[in-house]
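Researcher: Re-running this chain for the archive, since the previous output was lost when a drive failed. Same request as before.
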Amino acid sequence: MMRDLSNCDENSILLFEYFTANGINDMSIISEATGMIKELADDLKHLDIYLLVSKKFKNLFEDLEVQIIFIDEPLILWLEKNACKFKKSIFIADEGDEHLFNITKILEDNNLKLYCSNSESILTCTNKYLTHEMLKNLVNQPLTYKIKIDSFSNFKNEILSIYNEFNKYEDTKLIIKPIDGVDCEKVSLISKKEDLINFNNIYPEGTIVLIQKYVEGYSCSVSLLTDGNHAIPLSLNKQNIVFGKKDISYCGGELPFNHPLKNQAFKLATEAVETVKGLKGFVGVDLILGEEVTFLEINSRFTTPYVGLKKLVNFNIGETIINLLDNKINIQKLKENIILNGKVKFTKEENELKIEKFN
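Model: Regenerated structure tokens:
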């Protein structure tokens, strides 16, 4: 249902996703992006929502029974001109190139009520070193170094120095990742000195990266809901991470994941989210479950497990976020009644996200 802005009022909610609103046809992400925003629109279809979609993707969204605004200009430009016509918004975006932060700032500057994290908490979580320092004495984390690359040869020498330091007493691998990276983008594993010889220059000069001690175990995440003060865990999710010769890639996962450290994972994730004030709505915490629970990072936004959780959980996640942040429901009472029915496996194959539900 295509609509203009003439009928929007104080109850209207602006809804969008970064890639589909911009018309960015990146095959590695568009199926995931389309799936997530369609599911959220479905959750909120009984509310007065206006879904923002690029005209390039008109054929993908015409079947939705919601009010749609098709645009033919960059999302940021549209928001700068039209965000002021709304009072409320909920949206999906990634942290890459500060997309999430910049969009949030525009909406905040136009005094919209957001049903997602505020710009200050997003800034903290986007910068993984800021998160690391904030949680340094609160949660278990891998040993971490921050390096700014002035030249590739110096960078390789610094990595070698850190590698030698780590390996004085035990065989240790290193993880190298951008300080503000998304998913597994530009993440590398150094498992032996020879890997440094073949290490590609994937970071431009001036890039700030983190060097972390590799932790053996299951790559997992915890999905949570938070009202800005208190958080409740919804599920433990196993991530299928493939370590290639040159890079690391995310290939899907499954939820809920049963593991002996589940309760400890829930406790750590909850504590981490509640420490970073301003996180709201649906968020995720990445962890390693090995001999103990190790914190990696916070995603201050909707993540892929939302699509799977929607099929299992006994309440409407999207509407619950709205009601939670409108103070219509109590987060602790919600926690007491969470039930997941079945299991979901999601697989990323040939740029397509496939979701299977099992009983």
